[in-house]
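Input sequence (271 aa), recorded before submission:
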Amino acid sequence: MKQIIVATDFSAEAGNALTYIVDCIKGRDDYGIILFTLQNPSIHSINARLSPDAISATLSGANEKLRLLAHDITTRHGIEVIPYFSTGLFYDQIKTCIQAHSALLLVMGMAKRSFEQDMLGNTTTTAINRLKIPILSIPIDIKFTGLKHILLAYDMERGIPRKILESIHFFATEFGAEVEIFNVWKQIENLDRIAKKDTSIEETMKGTTYYYKNAESHKVVEAIRSEVLESGTDVLIMVHYRYGFWQSLVHRSKTRMMASGSNIPLLSISL
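Predicted structure, C-alpha cell format:
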C-alpha cells in the first residue's frame, strides 16, 4: 500500500487539500491515506488554568473528530484512511509519522497569497524548507479535475540528481501525465552548450511523454508563473535546494516564493 499523509487542522485549506487528494486517488486500491493532525492545549486554555481533565476532554474531542472524518472518507470513497492523532512539536511528530508509515508524499493546504506569507511564510512553506519528503501544496480554491500535464521547473545550470528524476518519472507514469521540462535562462545563447551535457533526463524519463521548453528572462518566478498560466498545467514541480545558515539569511527560495499563495498545486521535492 502506498501511503500519502494529509495534514489537517480542520481548516478550510486543509479540508480542500484532503478533498483534492481523495478525488485524485479514489478508485485506486494501491493507495491509502494517513490523516495526520496535531493538537496541543491552546494558550487560552493554559491561561485559564483548566484542569488536566478538561484539557484531556478537549484533546479527546479532537481525536474523535479526526476518527469520524477518516471513517467517513473510507465509507464514502472506499479509501483506507488511518487517523494519526499527535501532540507536541509539529516537525517532530510529522517526521515520526512519515517514518512509521514509510509515506511517499505529504499533502498540505495552502491559504491565499498575502503580504505576510511572502515575508514570513507559513506552516506549508516552512515544511518545504525542513522536511525531505515530497510535499504537495494545494491552494484553497483549486479542485482536482484530472492530471494530464505536469510542469517541471528545471534549473539547467544546477541539473537534477537521478533520484529526483526517478521521483518525477514515478509521479508521471502513475497518473499517465505528460511532462513539460521548463527552463528559464538568462542568456539563452548558451543553452545548447549546457543542454548537451545533461543526458540523465533522457535516460531516466523513458516510458513517459515529455518535452522541453525554454524561456529567456531575469525574473525566474514571474516566468514560471506565466508558463503555468499559458500551459494550463495541472501540477507544478520544483526542486527545493537547501542552503546553509548564512546563505539562508539572504536567500529567498524560489520554491517557497511559488508556494506562498500559489494558484496551482505545487509538488516540492527536496534535495
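Checked by second reader. Confidence is low (pLDDT under 50) at residues 114-121, 244-252.
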